[in-house]
Amino acid sequence: MANGWIDIHGHFTPPTSSEDREKKWHAMREAKFMVSEPFEWTPESTLAYLDRAGIAMQMLSNLPKQLDALKESNDYAASLVNKYPTRFGLLAALPTDNPKAALAEIDRATHDLHTDGFAVTCNYNGVSLGDSSLDPVWAELNRRQAVVFVHPDAYAPASMGRPSPLIEVAFETARTVVDMLYASTFRKFPTIKFILAHSGGALPVLSGRLKLLGTEPWVPNPNNITQEEIKEQLAKLYLDTAATAPSGMAPALHMVPPDHLVYGADCGVPCSTESTMEANKRAVLEYEALSRCQRDAIGRNVLSLFPAAATRLEKW
Fold first, then answer.
1. Is 139 exposed, middle or buried (0-12, 13-18, 19+ CB in 10 A)?
2. Nearest partner of 11 among 175, 197, 168, 225, judged by Cα
3. Of 8, 50, 3, 76, which Cα lies nearest the Cα of 309?
């Protein structure tokens, strides 16, 4: 049973009108995301679930596609952390389609909102995280030795008649991280701690192929990344366990050490239910290739990355 765990993967939505929720519901169904009713997020219902699940603190992230909405969302999450400092943490969203705005939001989120870390999406309004225009953003986050949570776009168009959250998110994560690898993002900015959602998606399964073939002469490699760098840089990543534990733990541990696995519930979105979140958590707790101590540590590994949150949590 989980007890006092930290959930790195908590979605939230600022308060919305019933009309807005209805509109979003219809848009989701048009994208083959066949949820049965409009979804409403509240801090009260989330805290009630965290209590039932044995989760001490949840890191909140939300990535609106418009700058004003993104900033308002960060403000709202910061207000929740201020109200519930021992239960919530903030991963401030960054608008990675606009490096200047992203740099400004890093500064604002750090000094005004006292963020614990940052959140980005793999492809934000057409700009991928491996794009060279983001080098100044990564440089600033590297200077701050920041923690960056990387999440795919779960609201991308459906593929083959099925919604993006089912499997497309896994491949988007893999494509994006491989692009960052060849762009030498991890080489140039080594002090950023990147946490990948959903156990890194398809990346761990493909990591062996990438190490085997990724430096062959027929693969474009403008920054001359080496086979050893591929191995080392992938091993430095952190992976959360959200919605992937039943089959994702083994490949994840092929790529990263056990202390780089962190607990994620994927809470606060209509594609997750208490039943699916609890089934996924049980799979973590029952994973026999790790010792009981190692399995329990998954729920606390992330605390070393967030010292301010760890200090707040001591009061829980």
1. middle
2. 197
3. 8
CA dist 124 → 104, 111, 115, 151 (Å) = 17, 24, 21, 10
Q: Tell me how far apart the terminal alpha carbons of the chain are, to the nearest angstrom.
A: 18
Residue 105 · residue 94 · CB < 8 Å: yes
10 Å CB burial of residue 141 (0-12, 13-18, 19+) is buried
212: CB partners within 8 A, 6+ apart: none
Q: Which two tokens stand for residue 260?
A: 């780089």
Tokens 């080594």 correspond to 190
Number of C-beta neighbours around residue 22 at 10 A: 13
In tens, the pLDDT along 225-250 reads 999 999 999 999 999 999 898 899 99
pTM, whole model, 2 decimals?
Answer: 0.95
Nearest C-alpha neighbor of 263 from the set 246, 238, 288, 286? 238
Which run of H or of E encompasses 290? none
- ∠101-41-197 over CA atoms, to 5°? 60
Cα 209 to Cα 42: distance, rounded to the nearest angstrom? 42
Q: Between these two residues, 22 and 291, which has the higher pLDDT value?
A: 291
Distance of CA 81 to the CA centre of its chain: 18
**Which strands make up the sheet holding 55-61, listed edge to edge?**
5-11, 55-61, 88-93, 117-121, 147-151, 193-196, 238-240, 261-262
Segment 130-149 mean pLDDT: 98
Q: What is the pLDDT of residue 42?
A: 95
Question: What mean pLDDT, rounded, does the chain reach?
Answer: 94
Which residue in 40, 34, 38 sits closest to 13, CA to CA? 40
DSSP state of 158: P
Q: Percentages helix, strand, coil for the chain, rounded to the nearest 5? A: 50, 15, 35
What integer pLDDT is reported at residue 293 of this predicted model?
A: 95
What is the distance, to the nearest Å, from the Cα of residue 291 to the centroid of all Cα atoms in its chain? 25
Query: Using an 8 Å Cβ cutoff, are 148 and 177 in contact?
Result: no
172 phi, psi to nearest 5 deg? -65, -40
